[in-house]
Amino acid sequence: MYLLARPRKTLSQESSLEVESNLDILNEIIDERLQKSQILHCPNCDIQIEAEFTQCPNCHTELKHDCSHCEREIRNTWDVCPYCQKKQVKKAAIFQKLGTEIPQKVEIEKLSTTQNKSDE
């Protein structure tokens, strides 16, 4: 009679299965949040980019730069370096203080090409 009335699983077995099931669900949630945290959006064109990107593959906007104090790579949107806690000076602010225009990438490439020719 006991074999007929006996539950298929003990309370501890059911509890263990429930804990394992909850852990699986929790791991899925953690994995999903980690994947979402690795995906950012370009501040210029708003396409999805990965956190490791230094330049947007769509509009070529620079996404990271070197800290002006510790020279570690940080995001352009950060006002303070998370490594050395120093306030960041934007490139535009530097050129405004100097009273000059911000050079375009093409102009910089031309300058480096002419310097290389004059060095030879």
The rounded distance between the terminal residues' Cα atoms is 100 Å
Q: Trace the largest sheet across and list its strands.
A: 1-2
Given the helix and strand composition, which structural class is it? mainly alpha
What is the strand content?
Answer: 5-15%
Helical proportion?
40-55%
Low-pLDDT runs of 5+ residues are: 102-116
Mean pLDDT: 75
Number of helices, where a helix is a run of at least 4 consecutive DSSP H or I residues: 4
Please, could you describe this protein's structure?
The protein is mainly α and 120 residues long. It has four helices and four strands. It has a two-stranded antiparallel ribbon with strand order 1-2. Strands 3-4 form a two-stranded antiparallel ribbon. A hairpin with a 6-residue loop joins β1 (39-41) and β2. The relative contact order is 0.06. Residues 102-116 have low confidence and may be disordered.
